[in-house]
Amino acid sequence: MQNFSYHMHTNNFGIFDGRNTPQEMIEEAEKIGFIKIGISNHLAFHPNMPDQSQMFFSDFNKACDIYKRVIEDIRTASLNTKIDVKVGFEVDFFPSSEWRNLFEKIQKEIKADYYIGATHYLRDKTESYIMNLYYLQKHHELEIKDKDLTLYLNNYWDNIIESIKSRYFNFIAHLDVCKLFNFCCDPFWNDKKFEVIETLASYKQPYELNTSGWTKIGEQHPHTWMIKELCKRNVPVIISDDAHSVNMLAQHFEKAEKLLADINYKNRYCPIFNF
Ligand SMILES: [Zn+2]
Ligand SMILES: [Zn+2]
């Protein structure tokens, strides 16, 4: 069984993200037999970010200060463990050159070990409207017209495609996380999903089999048919628990291993760090 995970969250931002401290996550990871881990809290930064809070930022300096503090906290917590601990971020990617320039600056400032590419936002073309999928219902979503929603969902897939092409990321998170909110489950969206598959293949971009969906909706991310198509194209895959608490570490890993074994998936990915 895969004895590592590079996608997990801690409580460094306060109330929103993980439930446990870095120390607790590291101790539990060691206890269950992981030999190496990466802690990847959210990096959700955009000049037009609507929800200002401990976790979502529009202010560059404030964001960098907090990310640096998070990294330092995790590095300190990892001093007394035998397992290898890396510090990364699960980054909300945006395709505009404005966002890319700022993200490249953030990378230089904070010097994390690795970055996971993610898309948790719906957006318009110009990125003046951006809305977190998880907060959609809380805000006046009923006001979104069907036509606009189709456009935003189209941008969701384009966002993933552009995140792959950016080559910023070690791997891409939960390709179809939108299905948690019942979006894009219709075959109408299969062309877009194939576009993502083909882009992952041509960029040889690793992606994750995210096990957290099994608890939430009874299915992993991405769909099994997508994993089969990605297997045919020999795209590297990594299993992620996306743990937000100690009891989610390695959750459903046996099931994930079985799924990969059943389709004879050979190309497994693990980040390699050169320091
Ligand atoms: Zn995520
Ligand atoms: Zn995550």
Describe this structure in a few short sentences.
The protein is an alpha/beta fold and 275 residues long. The chain has helices at residues 22-31, 60-77, 97-110, 146-166, 190-202, 212-217, 224-232, 253-262; strands at 4-5, 36-45, 56-57, 84-92, 114-118, 121-123, 130-132, 171-172, 207-210, 237-240.
Write out key terms for the chains shown.
single chain, 275 residues, TIM Barrel, alpha/beta, 16% strand, binds zinc ion, 10 strands
* Coarse morphology: globular
Strand content: 15-25%
Counting structural domains, the number is 1
Class per helix and strand makeup: alpha/beta
> How far do the termini sit from each other?
27 Å
CATH fold category name: TIM Barrel
Which CATH class applies here? Alpha Beta
Counted beta strands: 10
Structure description:
The longest helix has 21 residues, at about 145-165. Helix 2 (about 60-75) runs parallel beside helix 3 (about 95-110) and helix 4 runs parallel beside helix 5. Helices cover about 35% and strands about 15% of the residues. The chain is globular. Strand 6 (about 120-125) and strand 7 (about 130) form a beta hairpin. It has one domain (about 5-260): TIM Barrel (Alpha-Beta Barrel). The chain starts with a strand and ends in a 13-residue tail after the last helix. The strands form 3 sheets. Strands 1, 2, 3, 4, 5 and 8 form a 6-stranded parallel β-sheet that branches. Strands 6-7 form a two-stranded antiparallel ribbon. It has a two-stranded parallel ribbon with strand order 9-10. It has about 280 residues and is of the alpha/beta class. One zinc ion binds near residues 90, 118, 120, 173 and 174.
